[in-house]
Amino acid sequence: MNTAFLNFRFHTLFCLALSAFCLASANALPTFSRQTEQPCSVCHLNVGELTHEGRKFKLMGYTAGKNVLPLSITATGSVTKIKDTSSSIAPDIFLAKNDQPIAEDVSLYAAGKYFENMGGYLKWTLSLANTNPIYGSSGVQTGTKVGQDAFLDTSEVRISNSSTLVGHGVAWGFSVNNAPGVQDLWSTTPGFSFPYRTSTLQSAWGMGQFGPTSLIDGGLSSQVIGLSAFTMIDDVLYLELTDYHRSQPGWGTISTSGPNVNTISSSDNPYWRLAWNKTRDDNSYMLGTFGMNSHLARDPLVVGSASGTYFDYGFDAQFQHITSTHSFSTQATLIYEDVNWGSRSVGKSHDNPNSNLVTLKSKVTYDYARKYGISVFEFSSKGTVDNLYWSYNQNPSVITGACNQQTSLLTYCSANGSPNTSGSGFEFYYDPIAYIHIVFQQTYYQTFLGGSTFVDNSAGQPRNASDNNLSYFYILLTY
């Protein structure tokens, strides 16, 4: 996402997610509660944020407790409203379903304990709103796709065990997963970072909640397959190494979320994670770092583009104070991305052979009685000026770069070639009963694509950053 600009650029994704990863984090599923015979609040502070007990449950492969039928289902309905659509050539089509109630998606889970030391979180999603927009011959969006997409959402299967090594307690195991970060234990890495859900319509509109984001931040979710080896020493030091490859499913039940799967090279794409973790009474602390080196065969949004090599590395921190009544948590994530486009891209799709992007996200949450909560968040993206890629080009015959009316999938373009975006927002949630989660989320933009103004790609008209202020209300049902 969370979830986001639908893989605008495998350098800077204007997409937190297709619906494949709008709800990337593991939900408080009823199957987990039935298995452990504990309420969901033992393992979750919010629907997407794990407590210390929840992290232990996941670390040990979702296997704690008794054997139960590991099936759950979720369904989501929502309303998404962008503040101002007046600059669009046909707002009712270009930003279809704006301010209308819709059924977003339904997901089926096979999640929990499979065998004694083996469990998983397998999720199949049916997108009812549909995340793939349709574009006319001029590149202008003509409405959300009619139909339904079904795919294997962000998922993993774990084998885990514990032992003692020279006087130290060691938990260790392996994970097979299809999204960098989905296997992580904290709600700071891309697979689990706040917000735990973003609007499906944002993807269909070709815009993202946090502006341009790095490739690791959701860009490969449900697009790859990886084998992880992990260990936790004395419940303090966590280390993980993963190698990702292009996902090439052979049948529909594990189909990918979108058409960009072939953009990642089939060669090795290593991911690493290191975290220090400490829990004392009601408080827990984490400081960590993570990163990934990725090889892309091409940019899916630029005709004839050259391959690129992405190096993403990040730093994250989390603090939680959790009680049965008053709970607080805060998270922050900083990601650096360096991309080598190569000399072939210069003058065709990019101004320079190299570019970089720095993204920062943070949030603070207060929760009362595991029933009511409020989160406040901020975000920013700052990157290399690239006029050939980001700037609006009114000549429909020009097909270089990513932002032009002839072939572009971008809804909005920069007026100055900069991807810089910043903003803030808040989220209220209410859980009237265990398996109903009601959320109102509001996002405000200070800058968008390089400044206080940018360009609507459908008509070439200027827009204010505040025109993209977004309200998102949804209800999540689980069973």
Supply the key terms.
globular, disordered N terminus, 24 strands, 479 residues, 16-stranded antiparallel barrel, mainly beta
What does this structure look like?
The protein is mainly beta. It has a single domain, classed as Porin (Beta Barrel). The chain has six helices and 24 strands. The strands form four sheets. It has a 16-stranded antiparallel barrel with strand order 3-4-5-9-10-11-12-13-14-15-16-17-18-20-21-24. It has a three-stranded antiparallel beta sheet with strand order 19-22-23, with no helix packed on it. It has a two-stranded antiparallel ribbon with strand order 1-2. Strand 17 (354-368) and strand 18 form a beta hairpin. It starts with 18 loop residues before the first helix and ends with a strand.
Quick overview:
The protein has 479 residues and is mainly β. Helices cover 7% and strands 45% of the residues.
Secondary-structure map:
Blueprint: H1 19-22, H2 30-36, E1 44-46, E2 49-50, H3 52-59, E3 71-82, H4 91-94, E4 101-115, E5 118-127, E6 133-135, E7 141-144, E8 149-152, E9 156-165, E10 168-177, H5 200-205, E11 224-233, E12 237-246, E13 269-280, E14 283-296, E15 308-321, E16 326-340, E17 354-368, E18 372-383, H6 387-390, E19 412-413, E20 421-430, E21 436-447, E22 453-456, E23 461-464, E24 470-478
Antiparallel strand pairs: 1-2, 3-4, 3-24, 4-5, 5-8, 5-9, 6-7, 9-10, 10-11, 11-12, 12-13, 13-14, 14-15, 15-16, 16-17, 17-18, 18-20, 19-22, 20-21, 21-24, 22-23
